[in-house]
Amino acid sequence: MWIVRPARHEDLAGIEQLVVGQGPSVSTTLPQSRDKLSERIDQSLRSLADDPSLKQGERFLFVLEDVETGRVHGTAGIDVHAGLGQPFYNYRCDELIHSSHELGVSNRVEVLYPTHELTGRSLLCSFAIDRALRGQPAFELLSRARLLFMAQHRERFTDELIVEIQGVQDEDGQSPFWDSLGRHFFNMDFATADYYSAIKSKTFIAELMPPHPIYVTLLSDAARQAIGRPYEAAAQTLQLLQREGFSAGRHIDIFDGGPVLECRLNDLYSVKNHRLKTVKRGDASRGLAYMIANGENEDFRCGLANVSDGIGDVIRLHNDVADVLRVNDNDDVAMIAL
Amino acid sequence: MLVIRPIRNKDLDALYGMAEEAGVGVTSLPANRDLLARRIAQAEDAIEQRVAPEHARYFFAMEDLDTGRCAGVCGIDARVGLDDVWYNYRVSTMVNASSELGIHVQTPTLFLTNDMTNCSELCSLYLAEPYRQGGNGLFLSRCRSLFLADFQEFFSDKIFAEMRGYSDEEGRSPFWEALGRRFFSMEFQDADYLTGLGNKSFIAELMPKYPIYLPLLPKAAREVIGKVHDNTRPALHMLEEEGFNFNGLVDIFDGGPVLEAFVRNIRAVRESFNRHALVSRQEVETPLTADNTVLVSNGSFRDFRVIRLPASCVRADTISIPAKAAQALQISSGDVVRIVALKDKHVANVPKRRFS
Q1: DSSP state at residue A173
Q2: Could you read off the pLDDT of A68-98 as tens digits, one per residue?
Q3: How far apart are CA B74 and CA B58, in angstroms?
Q4: Contact B182 A218 (CB under 8 A)
Q5: pTM for this model (two decimals)
Q6: How many CB atoms sit inside 10 A of residue B295's CB?
Q7: What is the largest CA-CA distance in chain B?
Q8: Considering only residues 78 to 107 of chain A, which have any Cβ-Cβ distance to chain B shorter than 8 Å?
Q9: ipTM reported for the complex, 2 dp
Q10: Which domains are delineated in chain A?
Q11: Spatial CA neighbour of B165 closest among B215, B242, B220, B244
């Protein structure tokens, strides 16, 4: 059985293994550094425990676990406030009309404005999964379990959510957008910038980017085409998020030009359509595949199980499933069909 | 004999001929008859003092007294950017540094400015083809320093000249191709012509207002920023010898450099001096070479005249001026004239300049 639960220190080795296999991509994955990963887990645990010293720095990290083996096969996170109290940078794609009445000329000029207007919104992030599980139910569970957590802890999060989708890269991990823009100001390739971004914080790197708007027409063809385009490998994630209600706005990542998706928390499919039921333990194990989550913090569990959903307020869970989810009779769970 | 004098309406045909000959890139001399007639009228207003000094657009003609033909022109605008808006790019440096990451990247960046507003400009220098010899170009360019020296109060402290930027044999400007074309949707020639007509509002309307990071432009464009057209190199050299320097501003269309100097520091202004004229019956026998020539002006505003004489005419308190030259200068014995050596003997070899 697959479950998603908060990351613990014991997961460090498993997470590290996952992250190293991911390759570069600024902002979406986790730092390729044991110390930094350990820090991330620690932050997540403190966030779950409502440590007041975190202020705007709360961030949750969940892992996908195969209950039978205890192994970690994926990670998914939420930063409660994008930027974690620091500015969260993006480019906003905008258009200016340069027109001359006298000459009868009217040009649409595309401009990228550096902005941090998305700072503070809750951000879905740190999604990484075992390649073998792409396209499997576990993939969907890992991505959507966070949404059930949000649904059950509505007050922790902002009304508007964002998620950054990895931008276009070539086979060698080079980003055409970075090569045409960021590289000029850093003298380093995308992978190196990505490394520093994870180690030093994305804000740190972003603040070294040029402060003035960028005329799109001056970028290379490849870079222009990469603006707002997702990396092929991220297509599945993108589709899943789109089904949940996310759509691309006018913001892109400042490093690789990937799109930033936006959605209101209350408009998320999983938030709108999940139902709360009262648990009744037993030995029923027939029915459709559902995601079922308890309402806990540190003990948050969201698992995948076959149950038959009735009209009433009660859901019958198999004892094994209930054990894994750590729920007893009369506990409330949130559930939604996969 | 060649004499410099204020331009007159009768010079229009010759001026139009030169404008046609000049072609693209000599922005301040567009081949448009009405416009050139207007320029002459403005110059007449200026020299007759019918306009306020800051609106004066002085325009001088070099006349060949033997033929009565106008052989070249040169101008001084008392101020730029007062009626319209004067644009340049400033080549600035932005530094991106982080000691933690070991980064220190300097990024040359173009900022759109109006920095030359309210400055005087040397402009519209053009010498007809057959006269391009014997130091005539120097004469035509530097005669203006004598006007500046006598009437400094009518000009700003600083004066500048815009140099025509680089373009290839086909007249293509790599700077324009990389930047202007993307925003103006027109040919360089057309943009240049419109500017010459004094129609500058389109620049404000179509030009990018935000800074341009030079690394985003192709190498060919970056390399020609601050670089002059091959035909303009002598003019550049002439100005540099006189103490003008590239001031970090470039033309927004072709990237040509702006050279500037404080009027009081211009070599020919600084070194010019006054003498009493002594009109002599003797003809001058010494042949004029650029090195032994002095420029002599009559110090008159409305009837400004400049001629050339051999340096040997200059004495301790006087200058001996042959009758014909005196007539051309419209002076008689006892009048005070202003004199300066055509070339500074101390700077025979100014090192060649490079921007890139």
Answers
A1: S
A2: 999 999 999 999 999 998 899 999 999 999 9
A3: 8
A4: yes
A5: 0.87
A6: 23
A7: 81
A8: 98-100, 102-103, 105, 107
A9: 0.85
A10: 2-92+115-268 (3.40.630.30), 274-337 (2.40.40.20)
A11: B220
